[in-house]
Amino acid sequence: MKTVQNALDAYIHATNSHKFEHVAKLLSNHAVYMFTNKSWIGKDQIQTYFEGSWKAIEDEVYTIEDITWLASNENSAICIFVYQWKGYINGESKEGTGQGTNVFVNENGEWKLIHEHLSPLA
């Protein structure tokens, strides 16, 4: 079984692939995403979010750093982090940063992301 850190790394890589089928493999069927002004529940809604974001922000690159694992056992793990994104909106270079929380669960020996909460930093 891969470690939960491997699962987080794979999730970042899948996000930067800009192909939801790669992201979907790493999500729990019960995943919930919460951002500043909206929540998405389940893979269908989360797919809509990702594909909309990739369309709005061309060539987006998403990275995380300052990862702190708050809790981890054989069934679940929670981390907090700082994220950055860079890309082009209407042809203009843009970037942003924020803080996030990810919750992973062990489903049949595989770590799956069940919750993500992102908040931009002002």
Beta strand %? over 45%
C-alpha end-to-end distance: 39 Å
Rg = 14 Å
Count of beta strands = 6
Major sheet: arrangement of strands: 2-1-6-5-4-3
Percent helix, as a range, is 25-40%
* H/I helix tally: 3
User: Helix-strand pattern, N to C?
Assistant: HHEEHEEEE
Quaternary structure type: single chain
Overall pLDDT: 95
Which word captures the global form?
Answer: globular
Low-confidence stretches: none
Given helix and strand content, the structural type is: alpha+beta
> Major sheet, described briefly?
6 strands, mixed
Describe the protein's architecture and organization.
The chain is α+β, with helices and mostly antiparallel strands. The chain has 3 helices and 6 strands, in the order ααββαββββ. Strands 2-1-6-5-4-3 form a 6-stranded mixed sheet. The protein is globular and about 45 Å long. The termini are far apart. 12% of the residues are buried. The model has no long low-confidence stretch (mean pLDDT 95).
Keywords:
122 residues; alpha+beta; 6 strands
Question: What is the fold's blueprint, element by element?
Answer:
Layout lengths: L3 H14 L2 H5 L2 E8 L4 E3 H15 L1 E15 L3 E14 L2 E16 L2 E11 L2
Parallel strand pairs: 1-6
Antiparallel strand pairs: 1-2, 3-4, 4-5, 5-6
Summarize the structure.
It is built from three helices and six strands, in the order H-H-E-E-H-E-E-E-E. It has 122 residues and is an alpha+beta fold.
